[in-house]
Amino acid sequence: MSFPRQVQIIEVGARDGLQNEPSHPDVATRVELLERLTKSGIKHLEAGSFVSPKWVPQMTKTDEVLAALQASQQADVQQATFSVLTPNLKGLEAAVQAQAQEVAIFSAASESFTQKNINCSIQESLQRFDAIMAQAQQINLPVRGYVSTVVACPYEGKIQPQKVAEVAKHLYEMGCYEISLGDTIGAATPFEFKAMLEAVIQEIPMEALAVHCHDTYGQALANIYVSLEMGINKVDSAIAGLGGCPYAKGASGNVATEDVVYMLQGMNIETGIGLQALCETGQWICQKLNRSNQSKVGKAMLA
């Protein structure tokens, strides 16, 4: 198979990244981060989530973040799409009230992971999304689906590729326009990741798939390379590698957007993203959060 000519980066730093940060950045910082990211050329970004403040305090006031973005006069912001995570009907209703452009729901391919996180089976978790999908479809609100633990689970170890394919197919047939496949603990190796993708591709069109690789074991770029080689052209990543891996103490989490873009540019694959501006944004947010920059490219280019 040939590599795609273009790849869309879905920037998850302002949601999946910040929600795992111990500091709680204010609305102004979150908005500025998203504005800077759009200015670098990123067109699709997670802006936050509508979840209980008790469980994810970092994501409070996502409605204010969306309001600020909607009021922005920056052309780059106006042309971008901002999505929010809505794990239940209450979250969806809040997102609709805040005039969100897109919402996301998430499931997992591991029964143990699902039970420990939301106290139900995979099948029960998927059934809970029926009401969300029905309401979203009534107002033509796009829904993106996430599948976690697609290769390995912190509780039950290796996950069978066919199980991933089953969950992904269910979300796709439910109405999710795109399915993001997440290596939640970042333990997958390229051969394992490829085997998982081969199973999923049998059930879902290639153009409806994205990959979401964590870099806990330093395998993220290798797994993304394998995905590109198979023809996948959508990649989730987080500026400066924001976030962490709650299942592996001290480990890094999301793959850094700067590192992904650098690799893609070296492969002559178009992203529409300016790498220098991206690196500067990564350094800026790390200083704001008083944390180290997890992007190797960012640190090298700004050294």
TrEMBL record:
UniProt entry tagged with the keyword Metal-binding: yes
GO MF terms held by the record: hydroxymethylglutaryl-CoA lyase activity; metal ion binding
Any one biological process term the GO annotation gives: L-leucine catabolic process
**Metabolic or biological pathway:** Metabolic intermediate metabolism; (S)-3-hydroxy-3-methylglutaryl-CoA degradation; acetoacetate from (S)-3-hydroxy-3-methylglutaryl-CoA: step 1/1
Quote any Pfam family the record assigns: HMGL-like
- List the source organism: Bermanella marisrubri
Keyword annotations from UniProtKB, A to Z:
Lyase, Metal-binding
EC number(s) recorded for this UniProt protein: 4.1.3.4
- Could you tell me which InterPro entries the record lists for this protein? Aldolase_TIM, HMGL, PYR_CT
Any idea where the Pyruvate carboxyltransferase domain is? 7-279
Protein name in UniProt: hydroxymethylglutaryl-CoA lyase
Q: Could you say which protein family the record assigns here?
A: Belongs to the HMG-CoA lyase family.
